[in-house]
From TrEMBL:
Keyword NADP belongs to the record: yes
Keyword annotations from UniProtKB, A to Z: NADP, Oxidoreductase
The keyword Oxidoreductase belongs to this UniProt entry's keyword annotation: yes
InterPro entries in UniProt: ADH-like_C, ADH-like_N, ER, GroES-like_sf, NAD(P)-bd_dom_sf
Listed PANTHER family: QUINONE OXIDOREDUCTASE PIG3 (PTHR48106:SF18), QUINONE OXIDOREDUCTASE PIG3-RELATED (PTHR48106)
UniProt name for this protein: Zinc-binding dehydrogenase
Coiled-coil segments: none
Domain Enoyl reductase (ER): 10-323
Length: 326
């Protein structure tokens, strides 16, 4: 089969397609014939050689993907030809991933689904929708009628969280550092699009005098104290991402950073945190026009993976870069 195999840190234009054996099926694992996958910051980090120790060379990149079941073990409940998604759980890091014509993944990493949506749409969803859904539910317990602040709103997770929160009946405040992207925030569900200058709490409280019910932190450590000040007592902030690259707060003092009565949680999940019923609801919401997935560009063929990496790093268009295997 054809695959993107990484043997050492390289530049985007050094990602090349090579021929490798199709992986053999073994007990407890499912072989997928890949149809599409999203390209993520995780793959960029791995390509640069900056991943955590769980990443090892040589490795086929790709932490998520969608396709059809090619072979499955008896008793798995999966049948050849069935559509399925997979993501994370060591995929593309400690075992080979989705940047290939076939991928072998654990049965527990499989999310079966049935939809007539095109592969380029479904391929954008697993990682960003799982992270957004888990942040809103496990992390924040967001309810209909509540107010949500999304800090880092033009990220793929931010745009997805806004769309999912609106579908749940929430009022969404979302942020961007670029005034020319406020329209993108509104297109994906934001009721209020705010330009982030690093000091948002007072402006948020002009719209929500008591503070928001929930806040999703995607910018990272430097923004978190200000985000927490925008949350009402009894409300919750969830730390999910660090677009700034800073995951920690130097000399962190809980009494200085966390307002009295405000709850602070974190979220990080995987395939098991996106149940098939939830994914099915998301797919139907897209098909019915209630949800708009954030797709920056669709690339066709494994040969376009280098361009997808280049475009992702350039950051010119918000949304997910998707590769479709023709």
């Amino acid at each position: 089969m054809r695959a993107i195999v990484l043997t050492r840190p390289v530049a985007p234009d050094q990602l090349t397609v090579t021929e490798v054996p199709v992986p053999d099926v073994r007990p407890g694992w499912v072989r997928l014939r890949m149809k599409a996958f999203g390209v993520n910051e995780s793959e960029v980090t791995s390509r640069k050689g900056e991943s955590d120790p769980d990443f090892t060379f040589p490795r086929i990149l790709g932490i998520e993907g969608v396709g059809v079941v090619d072979a499955a073990p008896e008793g798995s409940g999966l049948e050849p030809g069935q559509k399925a998604a997979t993501m994370m759980g060591g995929m593309g890091r400690s075992y080979d991933g989705s940047h290939a014509e076939y991928a072998l993944v654990p049965v527990g990493q499989i999310i079966p689904f049935d939809t007539d949506l095109p592969w380029e749409t479904v391929g954008a969803l697993p990682e960003m929708f799982q992270t957004a859904h888990g942040s809103l539910t496990t992390g924040l317990g967001l309810q209909a009628g509540q107010t949500l602040l999304i800090r880092g709103g033009t990220s793929t997770v931010g745009l997805s969280a806004a769309a999912l929160a609106k579908d749940r009946g929430a009022t969404v405040l979302s942020t961007t550092r670029r005034p020319d992207r406020t329209g993108v925030l509104r297109e994906h569900g934001a009721d209020h699009a705010l330009v982030d200058d690093g000091r948002l709490a007072d402006r948020v409280r002009e719209l929500c005098p008591d503070g928001v019910d929930a806040a999703l932190e995607l910018v990272g450590g430097p923004a978190l104290p200000d985000t927490l000040r925008a949350v009402r007592p009894g409300g919750t902030a969830c730390f999910t991402g660090a677009l700034s690259g800073e995951w920690t707060i130097p000399d962190f003092s809980p009494f200085a950073v966390i307002p009295i009565g405000v709850r602070l949680t974190v979220y990080g999940g995987g395939a098991t945190d996106l149940p098939p019923a939830v994914f099915d609801h998301q797919l139907r919401s897209i098909a019915e026009g209630r949800l708009r997935p954030a797709i920056a560009k669709v690339h066709h063929g494994l040969d376009q993976v280098p361009q997808a990496h280049t475009d992702l790093e350039a950051g010119g268009t918000p949304g997910k870069h998707v590769v479709v295997l023709d």
